[in-house]
TrEMBL record:
Entry's transmembrane regions: none
GO BP term, example: DNA replication
GO cellular component: MCM complex
Pfam families with a match to the protein in the record: MCM, MCM_OB
Lineage of source species: Archaea, Methanobacteriati, Methanobacteriota, Stenosarchaea group, Halobacteria
Species in which this protein is naturally found: Halosimplex rubrum
Keyword entries, A-Z: ATP-binding, DNA replication, DNA-binding, Nucleotide-binding
Membership in a protein family: Belongs to the MCM family.
Name of the protein described by the UniProt record: Minichromosome maintenance protein MCM
Length: 648
């Protein structure tokens, strides 16, 4: 133990009446390969001895007098990866562990008794009792230590109040990110100085701690666990860009090759014309954002395509390379809680807002978006448009907010596009949700001998590189890709000049004149977001004409591909398809007509019947239209169930 201090693997800090010992756990094996195992298997004994020596050294060095020491704290520093809360086992009890989790709740700090002095009322002997710091309950002596006293009754010991030693404790709740096959668990964690107030709700942390069993239920059958934290690493995992790498990236940008190199390096073994377009959209999404002068500068994109074209592999590449990114499954979103939900606090009572991955990460990717449950899909409309989501249930009223991009992918209804059916009939998306995406890609797996040969060659090359443990030096590695993205996002191009604004306005007017059905003012923000991306890729400090032009071209290309796929463009501008728009108009007309008829009142049933019969519109669409008109106050419903227009 002395050598640990001699080699600076443990340091001492004295603050007033507190001695804090900080242990460098990761380098213990340099001194003795068995030391880490000793601290892991018997942390109480090993850390207690380390603590005693630390206090002795603090006194020897004149940092504090021995009778002044009231508190001793232990901090264990490590960068080791942790396990999930739901991976804790019985064998981990009273051992040193690392846990990776998200801070779910932070409770108020409270003083607890950690040492007490008792007096035996029979003989007057004093007893010092260290308290079990996990449950905070005060333990009395079980028997008098005096050889001449036979007192074994706990009721005959009195605490000497003025000699209690108290220390401030803070509870936090840690939770796992739920996945498609794991609900995730949470666990209470005890913080003591100097870890108090060291975390915030929503942070992802690695906690070095000792699991304790702190309380048994009344039936003595269930034991609950809590953690006593000894160290917390809550620094966001950041990507450090060295000066040498920064110079290299700057040269690439100045050469004009940044976009091509990043596209070539993004999931390089996934090839094909249509998937390459989707990759360009993904690149735009991860490079977008962090522009303060824009209300919102992040991109939302989605790719809808046949399976096995590589959509999932592209999303996985982003998760593995781009900082603070997370991939989730649409089929598991209801279980995992993509957005968040009100959760009961079993420890303190009441309810609190549980934030999902959408609000914990910068860039979120979702595979199989269409598999989300209807409730979550409804919430996504607000989350994608406003980057916020309100939780109002269980007495909770809280708005969650975020900044970042959303990248979605999904398959057609039948798993694969059928070339003999209209494409817009082959995927099931709420039009209002689809309208929240700035770029939409339809990705078909069409048979073409030359293209198929190219795809197969790319796949074989990947296996060859893996077997040879080599990479193509003309491409960026995943780590380099992530660093390049971080480097680009450091720059914040300023808004375009008046000349560029005038140019864009003229171009927009020309586009509207040529194709007013496809271009709408509501898409100008998408063009501006894309322009900031191209300004970064081109190394421009201010958005220039060519950046705006590239942004417009990219948007128009996405829209044109929807046109080729026979997708109803009105979805993009209004969040409604043409049938829904028609149904809303027909509903108001039907209510007016029925009010002038002598035989029928315009109830919901009569309105539905008339429109379905006369205009061959889908009954579900008509029902949706009635609800929509009631929401926008074009209609209201009387107590008798009769519908009225606002002009009736």
């Amino acid at each position: 133990m002395e050598q640990i201090y001699d080699e600076d693997l443990a340091t001492i800090d004295v603050d007033d009446v507190t001695v804090t010992v900080t242990l460098d756990f990761d380098n213990l094996s340099d001194l003795n390969e068995n030391l880490p195992r000793m601290f892991e298997n018997d942390p109480d004994g090993a850390l207690h001895n380390l603590e005693i020596i630390g206090c002795e050294r603090a006194v020897e060095q004149g940092l504090i007098e021995s009778d002044e020491i009231k508190y001793t704290n232990l901090v264990v520093e490590t960068e080791q990866d942790g396990k999930r809360v739901d991976e804790l086992k019985t064998a981990d009890h009273d051992r040193l562990v690392q846990i990776d989790a998200t801070v779910e709740q932070v409770y108020a700090k409270k003083p607890i008794t950690i040492d007490t002095v008792w007096r035996c009322v029979v003989c007057g002997t004093r007893h010092s009792v260290s308290q079990y710091t996990v449950d905070g309950q005060i333990d009395k002596p079980h028997s008098c230590v005096s050889e001449d006293c036979n007192n074994t009754a706990q009721s005959k010991f009195k605490i000497i109040e003025e000699e209690e030693v108290e220390q401030t404790r803070q509870l936090i709740k840690l939770s796992d990110d739920a996945t498609a096959d794991r609900q995730g668990e949470d666990i209470l964690t005890h913080l003591y100085p100097p870890l108090l107030d060291s975390v915030e709700v929503g942070e992802t942390v690695t906690v070095t701690a000792i699991p304790r069993t702190y309380r048994e239920q009344k039936n003595d059958a269930v034991k609950e666990r809590e953690l006593v934290a000894l160290g917390i690493d809550n620094e966001q995992e950041s990507i450090e860009v060295s000066d040498e790498e920064r110079e290299r990236f700057e040269e690439i940008v100045e050469s004009g090759d940044a976009e091509d190199l990043l596209l070539e390096s993004l999931a390089p073994h996934i090839v094909g014309e249509e998937i390459e377009d989707f990759k360009q959209g993904v690149l735009a999404a991860v490079v977008s954002g962090d522009v303060e002068w824009m209300d919102r500068s992040d991109m939302n994109i989605i790719g809808i395509g046949s399976p096995a074209v590589g959509k999932t592999k592209i999303l996985e590449f982003v998760e593995e390379s781009v900082n603070r990114s997370k991939m989730v499954e649409g089929s598991g979103s209801s279980k995992a809680g993509l957005l968040g939900f009100a959760k009961e606090d079993e420890t303190k009572g009441g309810w609190y807002a549980h934030s999902g991955p959408f609000f914990r990460y910068r860039d979120v990717m979702m595979d199989e978006v269409a598999d989300m449950n209807p409730e979550e899909m409804q919430g996504m409309k607000s989350a994608l448009e406003h980057q916020s989501y309100s939780i109002t249930s269980g007495g909770v009223d809280q708005e969650l907010t975020t900044t970042g991009s959303f990248i979605g992918a999904s398959n057609p209804i039948d798993g694969k596009f059928n070339e003999h059916e209209a494409l817009d009939d082959q995927f099931n998306f709420d039009p209002a949700l689809l309208s929240r995406f700035g770029l939409i890609y339809i990705i078909q797996d069409n048979q073409d001998e030359e293209t198929d040969k190219q795809k197969a060659t790319a796949m074989m090359t990947r296996w060859q590189e893996a077997a040879a443990d080599e990479t193509d030096h003309d491409r960026l590695t995943k780590t380099e890709f992530g660093k390049f993205v971080e480097y680009l996002k450091e720059s914040e191009p300023s808004p375009p000049s008046e000349d560029v604004v005038e140019f864009v306005a003229s171009e927009f007017a020309s586009l509207r004149a040529d194709d007013s059905d496809h271009i709408d003012l509501r898409k100008l923000p998408t063009i501006m977001r894309l322009a900031t991306v191209f300004a970064r890729l081109n190394g421009h400090d201010q958005i220039e004409k060519q950046d705006m032009t590239r942004g417009a071209e990219m948007l128009i290309d996405s829209v044109n591909r929807l046109d080729e796929a026979n997708i109803d463009k009105s979805v993009l501008w209004t969040g409604e398809n043409s049938e829904q728009t028609e149904a809303k108009e027909r509903v108001v007309d039907a209510v007016d007509t029925l009010h002038h008829a002598d035989d029928d009142d315009p109830t919901r049933t009569e309105v539905e019947k008339r429109i379905v019969m006369n205009h061959q519109l889908d009954q579900e669409t008509v029902r949706w239209a009635i609800e929509s008109r009631l929401e926008d106050d074009a209609l209201y419903e009387g107590d008798d169930g009769v519908l009225h227009t606002t002009k009736n």
